[in-house]
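Inverse folding, one chain.
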């Protein structure tokens, strides 16, 4: 990436501002200017363990609603682990445990009364590798609607499937082949189908774990354009190794290092004038 950094807002490059040496991890729990959007996900003193191995250390941050928040950092720094705490997917891993709190709209989702099925309906997930069911395009999207009892009848089901495919910018490409196998779609189309499937149960939050890392540049652009449109209705949290992608699609960015949150701020500020030396070194490509 060099020493010139891309500004997502202006479309220009800027030279990083000299900053003091790293003082503490977890510099900012709430990005500057986040007050204009209510906090939807709040993480408080979160420590996460895989058995005896600690993967996250003392993480606290507020993720604002209806914006895109990107998690960046080198492999193994805890980005995906934290993402998966938001819908408790880590619960399926033997020996995994969380100390601390993760709240959605003020409710501790690790509390004893949490309905995990409902949580995962409210918090949709799109994985790095597209994973459509070996069913038709229609049935892939209809599945979550049926399971959650959201359709009043066949016509309502069909309308909701169309709405979800429209939201994922896929309807025009598949409307005449809804009975075809989802596996007949291209890689980029399969990923957008998985996004449509995640949107069908009407979630409030959409988690995306490197959703474009396996796609070609054109398909990646389609996914990024889609993310930009979806944030008007959904809170989106995206894990990405691609810092240029984070600059293009996100409003706020969190930088992680060795299981700790180093810095969390508005994306433009974090990329052009970071507050920590470690952040500057990472985004300018000096290491990582």
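Residues assigned per position:
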């Amino acid at each position: 990436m060099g020493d010139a950094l891309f500004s997502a807002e202006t479309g220009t490059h800027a030279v990083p501002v000299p900053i003091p040496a790293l003082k503490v991890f977890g510099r900012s729990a709430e990005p500057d200017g986040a007050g204009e959007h209510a906090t939807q996900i709040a993480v408080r003193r979160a420590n996460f363990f895989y058995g005896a191995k600690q993967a996250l250390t003392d993480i606290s941050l507020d993720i604002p609603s209806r914006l895109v928040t990107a998690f960046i950092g080198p492999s193994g720094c805890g980005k995906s682990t934290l993402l998966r705490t938001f819908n408790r997917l880590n619960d399926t891993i033997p020996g995994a445990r969380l100390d601390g709190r993760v709240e959605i709209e003020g409710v501790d989702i690790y509390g004893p009364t949490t309905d995990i099925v409902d949580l995962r309906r409210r918090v949709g997930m799109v994985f790095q590798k597209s994973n459509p069911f070996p069913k038709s395009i229609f049935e892939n999207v209809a599945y979550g609607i049926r399971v959650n009892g959201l359709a009043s009848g066949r016509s309502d089901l069909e309308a909701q499937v169309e709405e979800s495919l429209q939201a994922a910018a896929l309807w025009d490409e598949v409307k005449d082949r809804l009975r075809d196998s989802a596996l007949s779609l291209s890689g980029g189309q399969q990923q957008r189908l998985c996004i449509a499937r995640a949107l069908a149960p009407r979630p409030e939050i959409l988690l995306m774990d490197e959703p474009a890392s396996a796609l070609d540049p054109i398909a990646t652009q389609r996914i990024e354009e889609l993310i930009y449109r979806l944030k008007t209705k959904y809170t989106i949290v995206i894990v990405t190794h691609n810092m240029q992608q984070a600059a293009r699609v996100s409003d706020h960015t969190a930088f992680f290092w060795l299981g700790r949150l180093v810095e969390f701020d508005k994306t433009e500020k974090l990329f052009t004038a970071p507050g920590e030396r470690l952040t500057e070194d990472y985004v300018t490509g000096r290491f990582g």
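The chain has ten helices and twelve strands. Residues 1-28 have pLDDT under 50 and may be disordered.
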